[in-house]
Amino acid sequence: xxxxxxxxxxxxxxxxxxxxxxxxxxxxxxxxxxxxxxxxxxxxxxxxxxxxxxxxxxxxxxxxxxxxxxxxxxxxxxxxxxxxxxxxxxxxxxxxxxxxxxxxxxxxxxxxxxxxxxxxxxxxxxxxxxxxxxxxxxxxxxxx
Length: 144
Ligand SMILES: [Zn+2]
Description:
By secondary structure, this protein is mainly α. It has helices spanning 47-61, 76-91, 97-130, 132-143.
């Protein structure tokens, strides 16, 4: 009697692998459940339990989000307000932590974009004052 390396032997020392063979011809390789020659995924008697487990998994993965709402994120003040609201929503359990994390990442993207936009606007003003001819040319090039 031999035992496969890495296989979990049952009480009599025989590895109990699922006997299901995939369409590709490859064996399942999963451990057979007690009283069956199949693993949980392939046991014909476990259909109801599998469906219930799938439903539970789906419910556990469901992300809690707020009702559809559009929030302006055009200024640093907007971003601070969004982050503040999100912090309070996640603390109160109204928003999933994963949503809050995504909001945090996107808030950082928004902050960088707002800062860059502000810098470009200030630079354009400075260029217009210091080099009016050049600023006009750059502005014309941007419009083209
Ligand atoms: Zn199997």
